[in-house]
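Sorry, can you check?
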Amino acid sequence: MKKYMQYISTLCAGAMVFWACNDVVTYNDGYDDGQTPFGPPVITHVTTVGDPDTDITAGSFNQMIVLYGENLSQVRSLQFNDQNADLREIYAVNDRITVKIPSSVPDQIDDKIKLKTSKGETSYDFKIAFPDLVISGISHHFARAGEQVQILGENLKLYDFTPEKGSLTIGGKKAAIVACEEGAMTFTVPDGLSDNAPMILTSERLKAVTGVEQIELTYRDRGYTILDPFSADYPTLTLNEKGETFATQGGGDAPAPLFDGSWYSRFNMTATSYTWYYLVYQNRYRFALPQDNPLCVEILNDLSQFEFRYEILVPSEKPIRGTNHRVMVFLGRRPANTNLEWIPAASGTAYHTDGRWKTVCMSGSDYLNPDGTTPLKAAGNPFGLAYITGGTDLNLDVSVANFRICKKMGVRISQQ
């Protein structure tokens, strides 16, 4: 009996081992780790990482997205337009790929995702959204031939306004592009330019992305002059409340005028703290916007489409350091919000123009009345410009010239 019981015990133990082994084998049967494709890849839809329930048909640079489909593992290459995604940074299994859209700009745009795996390849319609091209202004509208000037804006390099791929002509003359970053494109002013010269800016990428053939701007835009810098009466017209004028035509250690033979106003002294220094005094000077001038009619109809411009020159040896010094421009009225007045050193960085003239712009919108109407009229418009000192950094040398109203240059172009 004892031997019989030992036999039964041995038989049961063996059976348990057999069943346990059988369980392990059964558990592994049919397991798929998602790393082996069984045929050519297929992309069915795309979402963002943050919202997997909403399909998207377009994305932007550096955005994380998920591609869904079949047989998506063992990726050999993954392109957006003609730019390769970094395969070291993707997560790919058979039913999905998580990937960051490349930040590099394509040379050829076909609006497709192109995927190649160990079992084949496929493509999927998907657009990469380019940010808008923005041109906000020009650093100096009246630079002399041979000087370098910047076109200012956003995404200028992205749209290929570079020395290698961009093109700029001014008044029909080729202007050499010497550098380009996203916020500024630098060019050299060509010889022989006249006032109101057309600027034509082009690139292949501009056309490919937006459908726009060229951007048309104006260089040396004279707009509508509200104080003639060539007038023999300039010194009298710029008398301030004390009967003094800062008018000069240069000479000695003074800067050369913006235009040969013209007047400008130079504020060069050790000033008193918290004082208004009027270079043009609005209680003395008035300007008209005659109705027989089409540009004046436009200004009166919609001042928000215009800006007040002037040139400023501050030598590097005597920069504006005071963070609460400001320039107040009175154009029919003081700006509706005095915080919109220009504070050159507001950032804490001393301001200078390296001894060169530079253009300053102020939006006409800043001068609208509270009800949105213009403060300007056909005649009798007060105009003034004052330098307002702060409490410190009072050794100053600031020159201003060429006061005018011009159409805003602002350009914003979107992807087609």
The radius of gyration is 34 Å.
